[in-house]
Design a protein that fits this description.
Blueprint lengths: L6 H10 L20 H6 L3 H4 L18 H23 L3 H27 L4 E2 L1 H14 L4 H13 L14 H5 L9 H7 L5 H4 L2 H8 L1 H21 L3 H24 L20 H6 L6 H6 L15 H11 L3 E2 L6 H11 L2 H4 L8
Antiparallel strand pairs: 1-2
The chain binds stearoyl-coenzyme A and zinc ion (2 copies).
């Protein structure tokens, strides 16, 4: 894991370069780019949540540098998950498997409703009790601290499919799925990332606390508590508890998330913007709790629902709406049907593939 730093110090560095003009050219391996004007006009974090129009340079100096520690740990993790999967068939109690599933949904929602829609995109606001719950759930998913996750994700949106995109899908399925976590980041990720405004994240004490004590949070919430729940509550073996509710559940959450970066940047329709790679992928939405409507999301990144399809395959929207109902979530941002329609007619694939979504266009 990368060393933790004080966010306040980091922000001083960042604020010094906020206003730096985005002049440096990026290698653009993408076949397409977008101007994404709707996003620019609507998002409060438009600089952080829109695709860039990148241009060509040569980057012949760049060499992939594998991080063998990550390769080994990721391999061991997958071996452990395979042992957990085997245990599901041969020795686990059904309650343990159900608990593993519920923990996957809880951790996944910490990513989708928390790191993604709340912190990375600010698509709605949340009172501190909900932010605290989401931070705990996000720790359960162990996908880097909220601060790092949101930083990388804002860079991903602004520089999609370029060298500055941490999981640039133009480098292939494997790289965008998991390979990017097994090697050093492209220098452009760090250069461009330092120009992204993260002051809102630094201003949130819950984000600061979680970042500072991240490894302790993860050890407790991602590994120790999930192991103790089946062991203490219904007498499951420690072996099954650990391999199913900690390791297998963690690996399933990781792959569900990674599919958004890989499969949903490659396969599916593009009803809102046919000029970008992100696509509508229902299989990914199923596993990623509503995050596979990725053409919509990259076109309208400020929409808290990340789709125009309501609750269809979107548990995360249900979660946010529930908390809005009790008053802990508020100011949910949405896109007007008229704007969606205009955008579909202007840049979508609907003229070729036919209507998509709840309306007849
Ligand atoms: C994981 C994350 O899995 C998954 C995120 C997926 C995102 C998906 C998004 C899709 C949409 C949402 C859908 C959600 C669906 C969820 C469904 C759930 C059911 N900007 O990183 P380092 C600088 S994690 C600016 O070490 P290296 C910065 O100064 C899994 N600056 O770079 C930084 O220092 P610090 C567990 C940046 O050395 C310094 O560089 N984790 C930026 O190249 C060093 O940073 C792992 O497997 C930036 N963007 O190492 C591996 N980035 O951080 C964890 C860096 O102190 N990671 N800087 O401020 C690592 O080991 C390393 O990051 C590395 C690169 C080896 C990958
Ligand atoms: Zn996003
Ligand atoms: Zn994306």
């Amino acid at each position: 894991m990368p060393p933790r730093v004080e966010l306040v110090e980091r922000n001083l560095e960042l604020s010094a370069c906020h206003e730096t003009a985005d002049k440096q050219q990026l290698t653009n391996r993408a076949t397409t780019t977008t101007s994404n004007s709707d996003a620019n006009s609507q998002s409060p974090h438009s600089a952080a949540t829109t695709s860039s129009s990148a241009s060509q340079i040569n980057d012949t100096d760049y060499k992939v540098e594998l991080v063998w520690r990550n390769v080994i740990l990721m391999s061991l993790l997958h071996i452990g998950a395979a042992m957990g999967l085997w245990a599901c068939f041969v020795s686990a109690q059904w309650k343990t498997i159900v608990a593993g599933y519920l923990l996957y949904v809880a951790g996944g929602t910490g990513i989708t409703a928390g790191a993604h829609r709340l912190w990375a995109h600010r698509s709605y606001k949340a009172k501190w009790p909900l932010r605290l719950i989401l931070a705990v759930m996000q720790s359960l998913a162990f996908e880097n601290s909220i601060y790092e996750w949101s930083r990388d994700h804002r860079v991903h949106h602004k520089y999609s499919e370029t060298d500055a995109d941490p999981h640039n899908a133009v480098r292939g399925f494997f790289f965008s799925h998991v390979g990017w976590l097994l090697c050093r980041k492209h220098p452009q990720v760090k250069i461009k990332g330092k120009q992204i405004d993260l002051s809102d994240l630094v201003a949130d004490p819950i984000v600061r606390f979680q970042h500072r004590y991240y490894l302790a949070c993860v050890a407790l919430v991602c590994f120790i508590v999930p192991t103790l729940i089946p062991y203490l509550l219904w007498g499951e073996t420690l072996y099954n508890s650990f391999y199913i509710c900690a390791l297998l559940r963690y690996v399933v959450t990781l792959h569900a998330t990674w599919l958004v970066n890989s499969a949903a940047h490659m396969w599916g329709r593009r009803p809102y913007d046919k000029n970008i790679n992100p696509s509508e992928n229902r299989g990914v939405s199923f596993w990623a709790l509503g995050e596979g409507f990725h053409n919509y999301h990259h076109t309208f990144p400020w929409d808290y629902a990340t789709s125009e399809l309501g609750y269809d395959l979107n548990i995360t929207k249900m979660f946010i709406d529930f908390f809005a109902w009790i008053g802990w979530a508020y100011e949910r941002k949405v896109v007007s049907p008229e704007m969606i329609k205009q955008r579909k007619l202007r840049t979508g694939d609907t003229p070729v593939f036919g209507p998509y979504g709840p309306h007849n266009y």
